[in-house]
Design goal:
With about 180 residues, the protein is α+β, with helices and mostly antiparallel strands. It has a single domain, classed as SMI1/KNR4-like (3-Layer(aba) Sandwich). Helices cover about 30% and strands about 25% of the residues. It has 6 helices and 10 strands; from the N terminus they run ααβββααββαββββαβ. It has an 8-stranded antiparallel beta sheet. Strands 1-2 form a two-stranded antiparallel sheet. The longest helix is centred in the first third of the chain and has 13 residues. The radius of gyration is 16 Å and the shape is globular.
Length: about 180
């Protein structure tokens, strides 16, 4: 027997399936960041392929396949603490147009934390993608969260119930200017 027999590999599909099963139950109370909160997730219905095509057409970006798979399973989700969300297509595009002069054109806000004061951005490049986090206001830098691993980000973000895990591992050497992203 190997590890895979006991712990099947995590996929975007298995992560969403687990959230669907969990979300069918009534919400639970948990202690989170100093307060008792309702612990649940509100999953949106799957996004139609026409809306995914709309993001690509409007932004001029070709979205990563794993992000498209995620959207085809669930068009975003909200955390029960109302502090965090993985954005729906509508919210992604709202942020895209509102912040078009603030973020580079190859970046999309795909999630928010700390009451939307933190933006998690997907940077789409010809050779892959990266994930960054930044303050929506007042911070001139953004920090690298991940290279080409959306599943790991979703897993950490959901598992920590939106806790800003990136603060624990923030590497100042990954800081880049918001207006000068390669």
């Amino acid at each position: 027997m190997n590890e895979e027999d006991f712990f099947p590999a995590l996929t975007i599909e298995s992560l969403i399936d687990m959230l669907r099963k969990f979300s069918k139950d009534e919400s639970k109370k948990i202690y989170h960041l100093g307060v008792v909160v309702d612990y649940f997730f509100k999953l949106n219905p799957p996004a139609p392929s026409s809306e995914i095509a709309w993001i690509e057409r409007e932004s001029g970006l070709i979205l990563p396949d794993d992000y498209k798979r995620f959207l085809m399973l669930v068009d975003g989700l909200q955390f029960g603490n109302w502090e965090c969300e993985i954005c729906s297509i509508k919210r992604v595009m709202d942020f895209y147009f509102v912040f078009e002069d603030f973020y580079p054109p190859n970046m999309l806000v795909i999630a928010t934390a700390e009451g939307a004061s933190k933006h998690i951005l997907l940077q789409v490049n010809e050779d892959g993608y990266k994930l960054f986090v930044t303050s929506a206001i007042g911070e001139g830098y953004m920090w690298l969260l991940s290279d080409d691993n959306l599943l790991t980000f979703f897993d950490k973000f959901i598992s920590t119930y939106g806790f800003p895990f990136w603060k624990m591992y923030k590497d100042e050497s990954t800081a880049i200017m918001k207006f000068n992203v390669d």
